[in-house]
Amino acid sequence: MDADSAAAGTPSGDAGTPSGEGISLRQLLMALGEPLVTLQAAPVGLDVVIRSVALLDPEDPAVARAGELVLAIGARGRAAFPALRAGGRDGAAAVAVKLDTPEQAAALRETAVEAGVALLSVRADARWDQVDALARAALEDVASGRNGEGGEEGDLFALAQTTAVLTGGIVSIEDVANRVLAYSRSADSAEVDDLRRLSILGWQGPEPYLARLRKWGVFQRLRASDDVIQIESHPELGIRRRLAVAIRAGERQLGTIWVQEGSTPLSERAEQALTGAARVAALHLVRRRRELSADVTLTRTLSAGLLDGSTGPQPLAAHVGLDVARPAVVLGFSYGAAGAPESELTRAEVGNLISVHTAARHRSALVTQADGRIYVLLPQLPRSIDIGTLRGWGQEIADAARRHLGLELRGSVGCVVPDLGGVPESRREADRILDAMVSAGVGTAVAALPDIQAEVLVSEVLALISAHRDLRDPRLSALLAHDRRHQGRLAESVLAYLNAFGDVRAAAEHLHVHPNTLRYRIRRAEALTGIDLSRPDQRLLAMLQLRLPGEG
Fold first, then answer.
1. Which 3 state secondary structure label does DSSP give 238?
2. How many alpha carbons lie under 13 Å from residue 326 in its C-beta half-sphere?
3. What pLDDT sits at residue 183?
4. What is each CA distance from 329 to 318, 444, 452, 476, in whole angstroms?
5. How far apart are CA 282 and CA 290, in angstroms?
6. Does residue 99 contact residue 76 with C-beta atoms inside 8 Å?
7. DSSP sequence for 157-224
8. Burial (0-12, 13-18, 19+ Cβ within 10 Å), 366
9. Going by C-beta distance under 8 Å and a sequence separation of 6 or more, which residues neighbour residue 479?
């Protein structure tokens, strides 16, 4: 049974999942994710709710139900047009299809946008029954309460309040960096000590108090043990008695729950309640990390799709809340001999450095790694932005990489495009500049096209000549072959002579030879090949061909 017929035994249009709150398209993409499915279009955003899953066979009438994810089995490419139109007409949340060519994707995206229904593409080698099962499992998670809509912060605040009731104290939940994640309500502000008050106001434990806790060995004991730790009161420091327990997943500490004693003593079972609360909090924090990871992965996938033109701007804009009509630009960065990162550690360090610097300059900056390069997408730029400012941002990053990582970054500034749809064009220009900086050995660290336009164009002409041997002069190829056989330097001498505009002394100085030696080599090269270097067209062709990598 092939992939398209794998689920033929399931009746088409059978949702199989009861209608309920459902999940958003965003949540579905996080659950299924790349490489199984790819978002092609989301004309009404990523918050559209999916309440059920339906299988639509091409032989069945093209109908859908409101809130359905329609799996258009067997309808490849243009054959999926009826399913998309029916989905838009009947209020379906999304339609999933398989694609054969990029041209099909473009046509289907256009139809999906017109119909107002989200379009997902499924890998050609994926089984429909696998997609169906995973989508239904995501919906069942909601029905069973494992992926509720309350939000992680709401869950943690509720847990803090429950723990406060069970312990009779005042509770705060913090991460391992002592940042406050949630806290319980306190009816009497007089019960709250200075440590808690300052922590809540600053959303992080104040350093003088943290230093005291470190000195008393509290954090060391939390790292080493699952036991509830007691910290006695210190009125002179404004610290009341409190209990603390580590929130742990296996051997890894995820955070801490603190219970401060108020005007009445903590309950007799406070330690037992706190131990249970830590285990529940661990489930919340592990889930939060997974969801954040899934969100980051989806953002990077959508960014990469926009950069290479495989997806339009709308899916990314809907996911992170961007204005598609504002100007945008792409900055490109590479390092190493071929512009490729040398290790996972180095790649991560460079990516983090670039992320920090661009985020400081532009709130909406998105950093993506692809094809051995790191790209920064700067959307929602002011219309007054200029290339000089962008080049300056890139130079700051290059300087920081040299200073902190000991790396020489090359950076490029693509063209500023009027809207998010022009991002692929800006990325192509950034790549053209980086390619030329590598091949031409451009000395500057960061450049825009006006800075090195000649180098970029010559680099591209050389790439064209390199790819098409029929564009080469066989006499010059024979000269290069002669040098290889005899360990000669005739071709090198001809190129130096031409680069110096026929100035024999300047070329000879560059080669560290006597001018008469250079004159002899030029006459010898012309005699061997029949090339006449007094003719402009032959000089031009020789300058280009002898610059090919490995040729000159």
1. coil
2. 14
3. 77
4. 18, 20, 18, 42
5. 12
6. yes
7. HHHHHHHHHHHTSEEEEEETT-BEEEE---S-GGG--HHHHHHHHHTB--HHHHHHHHHTTHHHHHHH
8. buried
9. 490, 491, 494, 525, 528, 529, 531
Torsion angle in degrees (nearest 10) through CA of 73, 78, 81, 83:
0
Which residues have a Cβ under 8 Å from the Cβ of 425 and sit 6 or more positions away? 414, 415, 417
Q: Tell me, what amino acid is at 360?
A: A
Residue 154, helix vs strand vs coil:
helix
In this structure, what DSSP letter does residue 449 have? Answer: G
> What would the two tokens of residue 543 be?
């300058």
| Cis bond upstream, residue 35 (ω within 30) | yes
Local structure of 121: helix, strand or coil: strand
- Lookup result for tokens 């035994």: 9
CA distances from 328 to 335, 366, 371, 390, 448 (A): 24, 11, 21, 11, 15
Residues 6 or more apart from 338 whose CB is under 8 A from it? 372, 438
Q: What is the pLDDT of residues 163-182, one digit of tens each?
A: 888 888 888 888 887 777 88
Phi first, then psi: what are they for 316, rounded to 5°? -65, -40
456-480 core/surface letters (b: 16 or more CB in 10 A; e: else): bebbeebeebbeeeeebbebbeebb
SS3 state of residue 504:
helix
Nearest-angstrom CA–CA distance, 451 and 336: 22
Burial of 232 by CB count in 10 Å (0-12 exposed, 13-18 middle, 19+ buried)? Answer: exposed
CA dihedral 160, 164, 169, 174 (to 10 degrees): -10
Q: Quick check: 26 and 47 in contact, CB under 8 A?
A: yes
Q: Which of 77-81, 141-145, 291-295, 447-451 has the lowest mean pLDDT?
A: 141-145
DSSP label of 234: B
On the 0-12 / 13-18 / 19+ scale of CB atoms within 10 A, 384 is exposed
What per-residue string of b and e applies to 119-141 under the rule 16 or more CB within 10 Å gives b?
bbbbbeebbbbbbbebbbebbee
Q: Return d(Cα 113, Cα 97) in angstroms, integer.
A: 15
Could you tell me the pLDDT band of residue 194, with boundaries at 50, 70 and 90?
low
Here the contacts of 467-472 (C-beta below 8 Å, separation 24 or greater) are 472/545
Question: Residue 527, exposed/middle/buried by CB under 10 A (0-12, 13-18, 19+)?
Answer: exposed
* Position 127 pLDDT exceeds 80: no
